[in-house]
Design goal:
Elements (H helix, E strand, L loop, with lengths): L1 H9 L7 H6 L2 E2 L6 E2 L6 H8 L11 H22 L5 H11 L5 E4 L6 E4 L3 H18 L6 E3 L8 E3 L12 H19 L4
Antiparallel strand pairs: 1-2, 3-4, 5-6
Helix pairs in contact: 4-5, 4-6, 5-6
The structure holds zinc ion (ZN).
Length: about 190
């Protein structure tokens, strides 16, 4: 359980989309980027934490590079989509990954769980993530993609709030920082209070 907890803290899954959760593994892209997948074994841990593998997959360095290439392509694709254009290079990488078949779901009558049968589970996983990105930038939610308002964060997320007023990637992280900052500024500007 200790291990599960550390994995929980290692990654964030609050962007509202699998593909954006992958893009968010580079934190603070707008200031001092930190790549949380750069740590040894982190790519496999992320795939498991994302629910894409039942066990930690052992990835070759080539596979890890493919995952990171897809991640950067997704980020460029979604950023481009927000600005009204889809960059060719990013589209090519995402299309390449999406080309692989999704695999065959097989239900287990005893456990009630589903196993996905694929000749290349890793390629299937990349395809799932890439298809999620394609669906995002072509579906109705593309107008709901935002970058976190906290200038040093800028994490991409889908605002699924009923009012469409969500400003931060997370209220606990960036929202409370912004509010504390606003309070401090008000306080500074009102020395008499
Ligand atoms: Zn943020």
């Amino acid at each position: 359980m200790v291990h599960a907890r550390s994995v929980e803290n290692e990654f964030r899954f609050n962007s509202g989309r699998l593909s954006l959760d992958l893009a968010a593994t580079v934190r603070r892209r707008a200031s001092v980027p930190k790549d949380v997948l750069a740590v040894s074994g982190a790519c496999g841990r992320w795939l498991r934490a994302a629910g894409l593998f039942a066990d930690y997959p052992k990835l070759s360095s080539e596979s890890e590079a493919q995952l990171l290439e897809l991640r950067e392509a997704i980020w460029r694709l979604v950023k481009g989509s927000m600005e009204g254009n889809l960059p060719d290079g990013a589209v090519a990488v995402v299309n390449d990954a999406a080309r692989y078949p999704l695999g065959t779901p097989q239900l287990n009558s005893v456990s009630g769980t589903v196993s996905v049968i694929s000749e290349d589970p890793f390629a299937t996983t990349l395809s799932i993530i890439a298809r999620d990105a394609i669906e995002l930038v072509t579906g109705p939610l593309r107008h709901r993609v935002k970058a976190c308002d906290q200038p040093d964060c800028a994490m991409l997320f889908v605002d699924t709030s009923p009012t469409g007023q969500r400003r931060w990637c997370s209220m606990q992280r960036c929202g409370s920082r912004a509010k504390a900052h606003t309070f401090k500024r008000r306080h500074e500007l009102s020395p008499g209070q």
